[in-house]
Amino acid sequence: MYTYPELLHLVNQKISETTFGSNPKELYDPISYMMSLGGKRLRPVLTLMAHNVFSDEVHKSLDAALAIEVFHNFTLVHDDIMDNAPLRRGKETIFQKWNMPVAILSGDLMLIRSIDFLARTETSQFTTLLALFNDTAAKVCEGQQLDMNFESQSQVSHNEYIEMITLKTAVLLGASLEIGARIANASNEDAKHLYEFGKCIGIAFQIQDDILDSFGEKAEIGKRIGGDIASNKKTLLLIELLSSVHKDDLKLLQSLFVEPNTDAKIEGVLALYKKYQIKEFAESQKQQYLDLAHHHLNEVSVSPERKQLLFNTAHELMERVS
Amino acid sequence: MYTYPELLHLVNQKISETTFGSNPKELYDPISYMMSLGGKRLRPVLTLMAHNVFSDEVHKSLDAALAIEVFHNFTLVHDDIMDNAPLRRGKETIFQKWNMPVAILSGDLMLIRSIDFLARTETSQFTTLLALFNDTAAKVCEGQQLDMNFESQSQVSHNEYIEMITLKTAVLLGASLEIGARIANASNEDAKHLYEFGKCIGIAFQIQDDILDSFGEKAEIGKRIGGDIASNKKTLLLIELLSSVHKDDLKLLQSLFVEPNTDAKIEGVLALYKKYQIKEFAESQKQQYLDLAHHHLNEVSVSPERKQLLFNTAHELMERVS
After folding, report:
1. What are the pLDDT digits (tens) for A90-147?
2. Potential cystine with B198: which of A222, A267, B177, B275 (Cβ 3.0-4.6 Å)?
3. How many whole angstroms separate alpha carbon A79 and alpha carbon A226?
4. What percent of chain B has a predicted confidence (pLDDT) above 90?
């Protein structure tokens, strides 16, 4: 069986070997630039990892893994336009470095190419793979729209929030795994368990992201502690606080929303999070999804050793402290 | 065999029966809106028409026809953002009626759904269809980028211009026909001849568009005679004029480019078009592509009656006077 670094190496090699086109360069240079920015390559590695649960011929899933990474990067290119984001992985976004039309069009082309790469996969189940890929792609768009809606929505419920992060982030992790499993000819049940495993890990990961923004040990690149609080972002923490806060504290919270002193604002909201044990609530939510993820991984009908790397990877994803 | 109105009816019925999704409505309402704006539905009708050349079971190409129309509308939605266009078919563009992020995202979803619809086609040649669809989609993006490049490019050659309109417009007409032919189990040669027929008709159509902008009888909705001249757009006519104009007239032309009085500008450029017989040149170019189109249609190995509607449709497309 392969290790994470070995699978990551295979993915990076595949990406560096891939040509997206050359002419006109205004269209293809941004794609090469975006794909060279790196990142964890978590999704394509998960595809190979899921394949490896059932078979050692992981190279058979490389085209699909590439498809998923290119699709993921397409969503980042278009999201960066919508979010007016200047930086991505510490480098200028396409939107910023070139311009908006170029970012729209090179993103479109990445989406088209991702389907092309998927279609290169030798499998008897291509129709199933394509349907899953497209269904997932549509859900990611729906999640992004819901996320944008939340900005202007006065109230967001706990369930709406979970639905949004499920669509925007978690389903793609699930699909990354299911696709690798199916190419390795896993049974339908096993493939679906891996999908659910990935989905639950994705939800837990997003909840952890919310927790770390308020309670992490140090700032990530381009972020700082309390960034979500400063921008009144409707995270799981804030949604839970709003639903449990007493009348008097609600007034305080509402005044904090418009507090011009950012440090005072963050300190004030953190104090309310503490008073209402919001961190503990979020941690328990995260744990619920982790437990569910492990349940699904346990159900996959292979020996424990073949699942160990997936188990470890999920564990490591949750060990971040910032 | 079916008539154009009959095929158009089938296409419109198919579109009106199609649901793209419902939630979140901010994402799906714009798609329904866009698809309900109408238009000639030329591309999907051509798909059915090509199918009908070989078989009367045109309903087998309806999903693919829908895919092509949804793809075409996706390109319009994104082009309207890039062109900052307020109107489309006399109605507000999605970008204008909603906002830019909604237009990006609903366009993305239309592209995803178009692949979905194509995948519903029952055919043994799905891999070929998908490869053709994706290849065409990529070319359309390349054409749009070239078109945008031309705006800031000081010189555009005749060949570069033909390449741009081929990619931006003509290949999709070719693919619309080839896809219908392949679903009807046409031979590879016949399918390719229909592709070339559609491509040549598309090029001739665009050349005619350039001619009509300067020499049409009356204005179309949202357009007026000389719009291209007023905006210094690099049409086939202007490119030809620039390559044949004498030194003295070049000075005049350059002064017309910055002439603030639009009527004087249009009149001045039209006079130069007349002096250098630019209309005649463009007409002869158009005719060359029409002849080539007819050559390819003649090569398709079915009886003349089965090709008559395609022949007539091409003829009617060229009969516009505005």
Report:
1. 899 999 999 999 999 999 999 999 999 999 999 999 999 999 999 999 999 999 999 9
2. B177
3. 22
4. 88
* pLDDT number for residue B322: 59
> Which residues on adjacent β-strands are paired with residue A91?
A88
Across the interface, whether the CB atoms of B145 and A105 are under 8 A apart is answered yes
* Containing structural domain, residue B271: 4-317
A274 to chain B nearest CA, in Å?
34
In chain A, whose CA is at the least distance from the CA of B107? Answer: A108
Q: Is residue B32 part of a domain?
A: yes
Give which of A291, A298, A280 is closest to A318, Cα–Cα: A291
**Given an 8 Å threshold on Cβ–Cβ distance, is B100 in contact with A82?**
yes
CATH code for position B41:
1.10.600.10
Asked whether residue B322 is domain-assigned, the answer is no
**pTM for this model (two decimals):** 0.95
**For A202-234, how does the pLDDT look when each residue is reduced to its tens digit (9 = 90+)?**
999 999 999 999 998 764 445 567 889 998 999
Q: What is the pLDDT of residue B227?
A: 85
Among chain B residues, the shortest Cα distance to A136 is held by B112
Domain count, chain B: 1
Give the nearest partner residue to A108 out of B21, B111, B131, using CB atoms. Answer: B111
* Listed residue (B98, B209, B101, B100) closest to B147, CA to CA: B209
Q: Does A29 touch chain B (CB under 8 A)?
A: no
Judging contacts by C-beta atoms under 8 Å, the chain A residues touching residue B146 are 24
Q: Is A81 on the interface with B (CB under 8 A)?
A: yes
The shares of helix, strand and coil residues in chain A, as percent rounded to the nearest 5, are: 75, 0, 25
